[in-house]
Amino acid sequence: MGKLCVFLLVLLFYTIVNAGSGSHSLWAFVTYISGETPFPEFTVVLMLDDIQVGYFDSNIKHYIHKGYNASEETVVEETYQAAYIFGAMSLSLKERSSELKRFNSTEGIHVQQRLAGCEMSDNGEPALIVSRDIFNGIYADLTIYYNMTHYSYNSGNLLSPWSEVHQTYVKGLYRTIYLTICMETLKMYLEKEKTFIMRKVRPRVRLIQKAMSGGVQQMSCLAFGFYPRHINLTLLRDGQPIAEQELTGGQLLPNGDGTYQLRKTLEVSTEELRETHNYTCTASHLSLDNKLEVSWVPESGADRVYLSILPAALVMVSIIITICISICLRRRNEAGSLTLSQLSNTDDAQVAEQISLSSHSET
Ligand SMILES: *[C@@H]1O[C@H](CO)[C@@H](O)[C@H](O)[C@H]1NC(C)=O
Ligand SMILES: *[C@@H]1O[C@H](CO)[C@@H](O)[C@H](O)[C@H]1NC(C)=O
Ligand SMILES: *[C@@H]1O[C@H](CO)[C@@H](O)[C@H](O)[C@H]1NC(C)=O
Ligand SMILES: *[C@@H]1O[C@H](CO)[C@@H](O)[C@H](O)[C@H]1NC(C)=O
């Protein structure tokens, strides 16, 4: 069962990570178990993006709404439709199960898993519908895929392919009926859960520097506490993006509170440290009008981290202010009233202001 859980998690993350930033998806994670186990024979977990919105199993025999805005009163029609669809799915899996037992004649526990669902693109149009089966956690089985331009059917290696007639029938079912039902359900849940699904939580970005053995420095760029899950996190060396191959990490991780975190790490060798490059971590996210930036300039001998979290527009504004101030100062200087040290003091004040502004924007 451990393997199966890992597989399910991988599938879940595969589907979650691959959807575009404005798109939404509805996936049913279906498990059919034959043999003696303490689990129900048939289980469905329904996910809207990354939250669970429904549950069905063969013991309770009715559909349960979950999620943050699941109302107490049950919507009879929806519940009836879900119970009907999952009931039909359970029957088809039961049939496949008895056929698959011929493939693996040993008695005992056999598990079929099905990932079935649809995705909606940024503009609200249907993007794809997929159904993918796995047998005993390792054997890829039946796959049906339709992305509005391209339809594919793969019978897998375990059972003999369907007849032409049956294939045509199933193709029609997916392209019209299943796609419509799935999209309608997706939109219904999106409306219901919009306060959660459509919320925007700004990421916080940190550069964390750690000394490793042999003088190597490990530099991690961490973005955390953001929602939705789509984020672009880029590490730059002297303003140039660092190739992903040089970086480790990069897996999106859920936090307990429904937000996400992402970390990317770069190892900086002693030679590279001597070259005194500057490093920047930038994050762009739906919740931000401008990129968040954190910079690090290694100083030889001292481990000093220079933090500045400045949206690009703020940088522009402060550059303009600085130019204005120096023009003003130059005018006054011409009048012979200001020294150079006073000028640099003004610049220091500017930096302090940027930093306090940035820590404000960061929280
Ligand atoms: C057949 O089923 C048994 C019991 O579940 C399992 O241990 C074995 O790996 C399966 N073999 C194949 C080829 O699926
Ligand atoms: C659909 O899938 C096919 C084959 O994978 C691909 O060539 C095509 O670009 C896809 N269409 C869309 C709209 O994604
Ligand atoms: C960082 O590198 C960029 C590109 O080389 C350069 O323009 C910038 O002045 C550097 N910043 C610092 C603080 O060294
Ligand atoms: C991330 O970058 C890609 C490609 O440049 C872009 O299409 C996408 O909108 C960006 N996502 C965010 C959240 O900024």
If you had to describe this structure to a student in words, what would you say it looks like?
The chain has 363 residues and is of the alpha+beta class. It folds into two domains: 2-197, Murine Class I Major Histocompatibility Complex, H2-DB, Chain A, domain 1 (2-Layer Sandwich); 204-299, Immunoglobulins (Immunoglobulin-like, Sandwich), CATH 2.60.40. The protein contains seven helices and 17 strands. The two termini are 42 Å apart. 23% of the residues are buried. Residues 1-18, 301-315 and 332-363 have low confidence and may be disordered. The structure holds 2-acetamido-2-deoxy-beta-D-glucopyranose (NAG) (4 copies).
**Annotated CATH architecture of the largest domain:** 2-Layer Sandwich
Number of strands: 17
The amount of helix comes to: 25-40%
Small ligands present: 2-acetamido-2-deoxy-beta-D-glucopyranose
In whole angstroms, the N-to-C terminal distance is 42 Å
Q: Please outline the major beta sheet.
A: 8 strands, antiparallel
What's the CATH class of the largest domain, please?
Answer: Alpha Beta
Q: Can you say what the CATH homologous superfamily of the largest domain is?
A: MHC class I-like antigen recognition-like
* SSE ordering: HEEEEHEEEEHHEEEEEEEHEEHH
Radius of gyration based on Cα positions: 28 Å
Structural class: alpha+beta
Given the C-alpha coordinates, what overall shape results? elongated
What fold name stands as the CATH topology of the largest domain?
Answer: Murine Class I Major Histocompatibility Complex, H2-DB, Chain A, domain 1
